[in-house]
Amino acid sequence: MLAPPKVVAVIDDDVDIRKAIGRLLKAHGFRLESFASAEAFLARDSAHELACLVLDIHLGGISGIELQRRLKDAGTRLPIIFVTAIEDEATRCAAMAAGCVAYLRKPFAARLLIDAIDNAMGGRTRSS
Question: Residue 37 class from Cβ within 10 Å (0-12 exposed, 13-18 middle, 19+ buried)?
């Protein structure tokens, strides 16, 4: 019997980015939970166990880096892939210091995201 697909949460305030990443992940056999903000993610019903987060750094309220810190302080060790459209060395250093398995600059190649998710899950990603 095949294991159920892994659930990846995507948190990005850009609806088009969420849709595009969602289509990509579904095409690669992942289940998706999508959120427009860190606050919406924190308020979610945690019925599904998440395999990893694809997290935008620059969100309207709580930043992606602040969300990662809150999760870490709460004892959550969820792998995080940071994505950003705003590239600067300070942001990159803050993301790396906060802890992430990958840091991708938008726009990024689809293969880079899928490889980062595979890496985050230790190579055990899809049920297919």
Answer: middle
